[in-house]
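Researcher: I'd like a structural prediction for the single chain below. Treat it as a standalone chain; there are no partners to consider.
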Amino acid sequence: MSRQGSGIIKCILKDHFDGFWKLNEARFSESYQHDLKETIIFYLGLLK
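Model: Treating it as a single chain, here is the predicted structure.
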């Protein structure tokens, strides 16, 4: 993935992940919930 577009991806994740998560959290198992949240937080940290 190009670093040039990473700002757009970061904005989308920051703006929409919380809403997505509130709507879909129950669809994922406990362990997958933790892994998914951890991955998103890690990914957002890399794009600073």
